[in-house]
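Lab notes, practical 5.
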Amino acid sequence: MDKMINYGIDLGTTNSVIAKFNKGKIEVFRNPQDYGRETLPSVVYYKKDKVIIGNKAKEYLEKGSDPTQVFGRFKRLLGTTETKRVKVLNTSKTPVELSAEVLKELKGFVHTGEQVDAAVITIPASFNIPQSNATSEAGYLAGFKQVILLPEPIAASQAYALNQNVADLENKQWIVYDLGGGTFDVALIKVKDGQLKVVDHEGDNFLGGADFDELIVEKIIVPYLNKNFTFTALETKMKSESSEYNGFYYRCLMAAENAKITLSNKSAAEIELTRAADEGGNEIDVTFDVGRSEFENIIKDCVDATIEMIKKIIVRNSLTP
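Output from the prediction step:
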């Protein structure tokens, strides 16, 4: 293939997206089966006769279906030997196979009738060789004939450079701060001889918005439930796949995510918990508020950790901010 690859994919831990570059313009394709949303939740649910991907898969968590058969956050497992047991199929799926399902679904967003045979897929700068190879493998498994990997900080910098005078950027450098749904990257980028290069980087493949959701559950929701209802070792039981409260845990995570999103624009958010009962048989049907300051307090250590990584790069490269 000698022509330019003009399809780009962000294969995210929590959400993914596909776009096309055409004559200087970017078209982000919308999900035809999900009210035209641009993003696709990176979640896979297996039924006997079909595979469900995206928001429809997430809905099975909320409906109380077997949460152990709804799979997400598998980007964090790329490059490992870990697998996920799919009981309905009597087999196990690798992170590569789960990622391929998401990539195949994204290909279906392209409404132009064009055959999507090649794509650029972005990866964290902190991805090692096994993680990178696993991403490529997922692309080929999804049906792409050519897969090019691009570090996410370079992708962000290219988008920035499109709106700048390239000559003005020569020999200049900047920091790219990328706090995603599941991974964090901070990279020092420099333009040299017209090329963008990652000069240095730090990162954590287990730090992102999904961890903030978990903190809301652990630090706000669980204490509220323990205070107002009858439980013993609630958090442990919620995280146990064999517990009756495991499905409730995932509903709490979804409530936490919705609250987090609301707190981006408002000073307070409601958390609604329903369709559960405590160990005394008392029905749980409650709504309570969480404030932005309370949320910021519980994620402070995570955010501070990202700032420390920035400082490491600045000091290591004898720079000043």
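Observations recorded by the TA: The radius of gyration is 21 Å. The chain has a mean pLDDT of 92.
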